[in-house]
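Action item from last week, closing it out:
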Amino acid sequence: MIPSPTPSPFELYANLPQDRRVARAAGLKHYFPALRCLQGHMCLRRVHDAKCLRCLEVEQQAKKAAQQKELDRATAKERAMQAKERAAKEQAAEEAREAREAKEAARRAARRAAREERERERKKAKAAATRAANKVARAAAAAGEVSSASSAAPPAVLAEPAVELLPLLPPLWGGDAGDDAAPWE
């Protein structure tokens, strides 16, 4: 059997009216004018606006393609904005971390400077106390008056004198002058 050829539009739509007014009066939604549209389509047309159904289909496809393109563009734009936001957040976090590190480094430097300043002040005070004690000891030695209370143990500041004063002092611990050992040693 020979397959039947595809029927032409004239055969398919032979029962539809060819005039728009007749189709409207009959309450139909479509009619077949048997004329080509401006784009060259031979098909049904809508009664309410006389548009070719193929032209409408092409318009809808173009509209969908435009919508998809706009959606793709919007999606790409949204992704770019999200990437910018992520980069800005990461940069802000990095800057905050660097600021915290700088603040901590400044605190450590301030504590170190304060500690060094206290150490310098302590050394100055110790040196001043040693100088004062040595001055008093020299004055006492020069006057020949050394109290008996100091004979039991020498003052702590004289344990590390800035200037060696022991040879200048007379023996205070009751030993003879040739005895070099002090009782506290």
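Closing note: The two ends are 136 Å apart (CA to CA).
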